[in-house]
Amino acid sequence: MVIQTHDLLELKEPSKQLITDSFIPDWVHDTLEDAPFVIVRRAPIKNGKVPVGVRGYTRSERFAAFISTDSITRQITPEQLSREKRWSEIGRNIYLKAIDSLNLVEEVLHACQLDWGPVGSVGFELASGLPAIHESSDLDIVIRWKEGLSVKTAQKIIDEFDKAPARIDPLVETPEGAFSLIEYSREVPSMMVRTKEGPNLVSSSFLKLI
């Protein structure tokens, strides 16, 4: 099993599987009872312990912990959510801009032959079935780095994304870390790259070494 940042992991007996020295709030148990899913955080996996986060019912409810790999019953990747087009199964009675934007994202990135998937609140709801998206939610997505993803291509993607009803925040995942596609499209001399050891400000030329 290859576990990556943003993957959603379904747990058996989730409340008993969290590894932490911190007090576990009641809302964590309640959320995991409704949907036994955690999200892989961007941190190293050490001694079989996977860094994960628990999402609550509000933005302020986030809890960091670890789990052991043998507590995982199912793994769902962002790419799996996009391949299966799980957004077509959502039957919410409110208009969700983020969901309405997914078909456009799929069309644009398919044309560029890029692998991608929804993360954040959209990814969590699509995987778990627990309502997490609001009418004004942004659409967070990850795009897997592909050699030859030029600044010109990035600019075209961002121009197309600007036509979507929701604000789209695309993050490009590389073997060395993740960076903002919006920032990359602006041809900035340096960019903030999110790594498992923390954020690093690096020269944009680092992409040539990937």
What does the model show?
With 210 residues, the chain is α+β, with helices and mostly antiparallel strands. Helices cover 28% and strands 28% of the residues. The strands form three sheets. The chain has a five-stranded antiparallel β-sheet with strand order 4-3-2-1-5, sandwiched between helices.
Overall mean confidence score, pLDDT: 92
Number of helices: 8
| pLDDT < 50 runs, ≥5 residues | none
Fraction of residues in helix: 25-40%
Element-level helix/strand string: EHHEEEEHHHEHEHEEHEE
* Main structural class: alpha+beta
Widest sheet, order of strands: 4-3-2-1-5
> End-to-end span in angstroms?
23 Å
- Estimated radius of gyration: 17 Å
**How many beta-strand segments?**
11
| Largest β sheet strand count, sense and barrel closure | 5 strands, antiparallel
Q: Which percent band covers the strand fraction?
A: 25-35%
Q: Which shape, going by the Cα principal axes?
A: globular
Topology, please?
Elements: E1 8-11, H1 14-17, H2 26-34, E2 37-40, E3 49-55, E4 62-68, E5 72-76, H3 78-83, H4 97-100, H5 102-111, E6 116-118, H6 120-128, E7 139-144, H7 151-161, E8 168-174, E9 177-180, H8 181-185, E10 190-195, E11 198-203
Parallel strand pairs: 7-8
Antiparallel strand pairs: 1-2, 1-5, 2-3, 3-4, 6-7, 8-9, 10-11
